[in-house]
């Protein structure tokens, strides 16, 4: 292992531990633990959202996908960026105005039902587990590759660090780790993009012209169709990416860390600008890796292309830039998994224990203890699963998390805020129909069954044709909510009017 990599790696660890130490001193109440006391400013929360959202899959995966598949790789950048416009215009403000700590709080502001809170918590925990396993398996493989250590040691390092952040520093530590990571990540992206453009004398037209001859795909490199040959499958993937973000628990939870809806809106604007610039820069990283590293060297390092960005950094900036980008990748992983642990712990401790088992009568001390035990349990459970999931297809786990979020959470959020007739039965059937249909369709998809040995979990012919089932499961989530609602006689227009005023104004004394 290169000494520069070790030094930068230790610097990142030291910096995040210092943040956790100071955050632990400020974490005194349940509100501090779950939502940083709602005290983050708009720009702080916006950058923290970007830090939470821009995972290793975005940083390493998209750069590699563009390098190897050209335009098709850029589909991910387009999908992830547009997703934030859905969050900005439809979800952020009403969520902040109606919620407190979790998604279930927001839905229960209209229904006051244990069944609704229970299914919302179930959906949250399911998404967090699939997303967490994907992040830890990816983190283990990446750190194993970067630092030449065993997979299980890599998973334990990430697992122990994320547990320390959440257990002692709660949302305050998690937010500042995400802010530091976002700043480092954007700095790394800008430096590499600058060096790539320098090679082309800052002429983007020249870059597009020359990259067509830099790969074996020729002019097809800049056209769609290299990776995704099935249009319906591509549409299904885009539905999951664009709509799934609005239902991801760890992203939704970030809107409760600010004092009001105005600050929530400004934080989404900051996040959208940061995320937008990031995804535009992925184009320079992908093209640069294709031109200055080469697809054969990228595939030799990792068949999925995940090492394209670090290899490009090494090609353009030598060992120093390679070490910096490797350290940034490590910080990226830590920040995302910390946010996931916190959202999973909130669903367990606040929704299931505090509101369902203790019926909302738990003291602040009991809730804090429950939250920390839950964070510890979520961490240990995820680490154990990740240790046994090394061979699982990470992409299928991530796509499943996005698909469930779009199918189970988004319909119930939109119906709660915008549909007057919506009721308790509709909320339960919306979550369950989206959740179950996504799980069933993925279990019979090409991500799980393939006639080619080693290409999927099991050898066999898939029954469902698309790797991502969002094109079916998202409509089923909305349809389930609609049918459940019209089959129930429950109607409460007065409660809806109250929720509508709260969602629009943030005024809670209605």
TrEMBL record:
InterPro entries: Na/Glc_symporter_sf (IPR038377), Na/solute_symporter (IPR001734), Sodium:Solute_Symporter (IPR050277). Keywords: Cell membrane, Membrane, Symport, Transmembrane, Transmembrane helix, Transport. It is a multi-pass membrane protein. Its main location: membrane. Signal peptide: none annotated. The keyword Cell membrane applies. GO terms for biological process: plasma membrane acetate transport. The chain crosses the membrane at residues 6-24, 45-68, 74-95, 116-145, 151-172, 179-198, 232-256, 268-293, 320-349, 370-389, 395-418, 430-449, 469-487. GO terms for cellular component: plasma membrane. It holds the Pfam family SSF. Gene3D superfamilies: Sodium/glucose cotransporter. It is found in: Cell membrane. CDD domains: SLC5sbd_u4. GO terms for molecular function: acetate transmembrane transporter activity; symporter activity. Belongs to the sodium:solute symporter (SSF) (TC 2.A.21) family. This is Cation acetate symporter. It comes from Pueribacillus theae.
